[in-house]
Amino acid sequence: MTKKGRSLLWFRKGLRLHDNPALLEAAKDVEHLFPVFCIDPHFYEKQPIGVNRINFLFESLADLHESLSARGSRLLVLRGDPKQILPQVWKDWGVTKLCYEQDTEPYALERDNEIGELAKKAKVEVKTFLSHTLYDPVEVKKAHGGKTPETYKAFQSAVAKMPPPPSPVRDAPEKLPTIAPKAKGAEEKATGVPTLAEVGYTDKPTTSFHGGETKALARLTKSLEDKEWVVQFEKPKTSPAALEPSTTVLSPYMKFGCISARLFYAKLVQIEKEKKKHTSPPTSLVGQLLWRDFFYTVGYHTPNFHHMLGNPLCKQIQWDVDPVLYKAWDEGRTGYPWIDAIMVQLQQQGWMHHLARHSVACFLTRGDLYVSWTLGRDTFDRLLIDGDHFVNNGNWMWLSASAFFSQFFRVYSPITFGKKYDKQGKFIKHFLPVLKDMPDKYIYEPWTAPEEVQKKAKCIIGKDYPKPVVEHATKHKDNLNRMKSAYDANKSPQKRKEISDGFDEMARAEVLDMEADDDEDEEK
DNA sequence: TGTGCGTTGATTCG
DNA sequence: CGAATCAACGCACA
């Protein structure tokens, strides 16, 4: 049988050659294969992506290109809106089949729907595959009696009724079909992975984590080396103050699909079987993978999951609109070293420990500043190399006690929480060198240090390092009362609606616009 | 309608 | 260092 046809493999997430069913389908029985990634302006129109995050993506693309090249292919990187670009290239290149991995994020659903329609008109066959999550969110809902599981437990009971997650499919073949040699515009349009400078970045990336399937697989192997550690893993017992991460840091690779969740899962289950005794969800490593699938599932089925307004799961809360407090948090100058050090770690590394994220998220919202979780979500989305739509939004609602979690009286202290893990404040001193000579005794509350101690440490509070922007002891108590009132109000649909109607989204937008205004001021 | 539980709080007491 | 207490939420299930 002679091979005919030309397929286009569209990479979005799933930046890998292992466990990639769309790739296997695209490479099957065709004469030529066009592996494509689109740099879609949609993802940086709302806010500029942090340099670490965009670099992680570019590194992942470069790695993908290398791996494809080793198999006689290459990665074609296109610039622009895929809804415009793809129809053009499949016409130019004579593409007969379009293959990609399903993406359930709201923007992706809309985009892919539209592209599906365009493909139909152009008589391009479309084949899609579910391989980003362990379970299909649609199937999970079915298994739960047609209702969306809104708690982890409900999710667990739903998936317990389902077949286990599919095993990873076989790796990409050693030889892939080539790109058609004279495909019109293939070389001009697809100019390889862009440099940071080309897309307007002048700053260098600062993170020590690097993207790509190769790095991902190496990290997976290393993470699973110590099987005893694997089977004893309990997330809450790992330290948020460790300078060498106390967890796997596989999340950025999971976000971009440099690693397959199903591969990770299969390996964990194998080790658990081997060792017999092991920890269990929700705290175990398998439990962590299930959290990811839980948020993907509930997020997919909840309208306006990434908003407070119009989100049926989300408590309607009249958060303060305070650009000054928000910016102090965002830029790591709240005057609470534990909070600021974590925010600096976010800027530098694009990654923080899960409990560190809890600390700063609680602080921004119900704990101290009483600023909307959606602003914190945006900061994380901009700077985290593992920022993942459903997981990020879900966790922000959790920490702000807007959904999933309702014991709002459990507040993280910006002073004592970190102390439990790091009495000497090594973490703080690493990320806030201005405090490096502050005695351990004052490291979590430097404003309490006597003047001569501050002088000796060459760190005057209010000059070299900020005074606290709010007083935690009093503010968190005020907030507790406000949360109690908000919860009471949410019991009444009428009052809930009143809060929604009165919540000024424009005011929230102004907070974001402030940064643009600042830039203008600097130029003047 | 009551009860127990919920991935990861803080403080105090023994 | 573990347990009780603080003040007290919503949800699932009996």
From TrEMBL:
One of its GO terms (biological process) is circadian regulation of gene expression. Residues 481-502 are annotated as: Disordered. The record marks 319, 373, 396 as: Electron transfer via tryptophanyl radical. The keyword Repeat does not apply. Its cofactor is FAD. Keywords: FAD, Flavoprotein. Belongs to the DNA photolyase class-1 family. This is Photolyase/cryptochrome alpha/beta domain-containing protein. It comes from Symbiochloris irregularis.
